[in-house]
Design goal:
- The chain is built from 13 helices and ten strands.
- It is of the alpha/beta class.
- Strands 1, 2, 3, 4, 5, 6, 7, 8, 9 and 10 form a ten-stranded mixed beta sheet that branches.
- Helix 2 links the parallel strand 2 and strand 3.
- The radius of gyration is 20 Å and the shape is globular.
């Protein structure tokens, strides 16, 4: 058997009732040369007991570590620092992989591993192998940074990100006292400043959004974690080049302040001129999705 170069990282918190599906998909992999690295972020359910039963079955190699609850981003930092393989891919505990996902990563890795400008691979999440969530990858583009894929190439879909571990070790999440959430985009934006990703137009990852998950409760999560939320917008302002891009970034900062209902963070913005002229655009960015949601509820707009 060849060397295990892939760690499938799963951060989990009170997902004992559903992690079996993820485990079964890993057991079905056509190539089992990987390690399942689980960081339990302080679960109070029977997750540890369930994972121990998986370990006793000895079907795949599993490394399990439990820590005090700190949030997914803290668990991610732990996983990255603990990872000893060349490749790192995150699979949430309520999601699962296609049966050939590991083999597909290996098949495409030779093009990535010796190219310093590439940080990894972006493939697709989907409802099925033939139905991605959102769009397929843009045509005739083989590589792009994570930011450019969405902003310049107008991709609108969900992805699975496969990274070189050595890259992730350089970009750990910031941790804010008293908060337990920082958006993944903080790290992806930083990586995008120096690295592209190989684009793979194939569904490797299947996901289900649970009622207790981050995706369905994102507005409340942002309000409970304002430091981490505003840090993301502040970083985007710092990274923006040119007045037009800076104006756009400040407008999103203004919208972010409205979402978390904070005049304090609006006053904290150092771009005194831009934060004033950006108010109209920021208000529109804030209310546009609210209007869309209302139209959907009234049956006047289809999803």
């Amino acid at each position: 058997m060849s060397k295990k170069n892939i760690s499938v990282f799963t951060p989990t918190y009170n997902r004992g009732f559903i992690i079996q599906k993820c485990y079964e998909s890993l057991c079905r992999q056509s190539n089992k040369n990987f390690i399942w690295l689980i960081v339990d972020d302080g679960s109070s359910d029977n997750t540890e007991e369930i994972v121990n039963s998986f370990i006793n079955e000895n079907k795949i190699e599993i490394i399990y570590q439990k820590q005090e609850n700190g949030g997914k981003h803290v668990a991610h930092n732990t996983g990255v620092l603990k990872c000893e393989t060349e490749i790192f891919v995150c699979v949430d505990s309520d999601d699962y992989l296609s049966d050939d996902a590991i083999q597909t990563i290996y098949d495409n890795w030779d093009e990535v591993k010796n190219e310093d400008s590439l940080a990894g691979i972006i493939a697709l999440r989907g409802k099925s192998i033939t139905e991605p969530i959102g769009t397929w990858m843009p045509q005739n583009i083989k590589r792009a940074s994570i930011i450019d894929l969405y902003e310049k190439n107008k991709f609108k879909g969900d992805t699975i990100l496969v990274f070189k571990t050595k890259i992730l070790k350089k970009y750990l999440f910031p941790v804010f006292e008293g908060e337990n959430f920082v958006t993944e985009a903080v790290i992806y934006d930083q990586i995008s400043q120096k690295h592209d990703m190989k684009l793979l137009n194939k569904v490797l990852y299947f996901c289900e959004y649970l009622e207790g998950g981050y995706t369905r409760n994102i507005s409340q999560i942002h309000r409970r974690n304002p430091k981490g939320y505003i840090h993301y917008f502040s970083q985007r302002i710092d990274m923006a080049n040119g007045l037009t891009n800076k104006y756009r970034a400040v407008s999103y900062y203004v919208a972010g302040c409205l979402r978390i209902r904070s005049l304090f963070y609006y006053k904290m913005c150092n771009n005194k001129f831009l934060k004033v002229i950006s108010i109209p655009k920021g208000v529109w960015i804030y209310i546009k999705p609210l209007i869309k949601d209302q139209l959907i509820k009234l049956g006047l707009l289809k999803i």
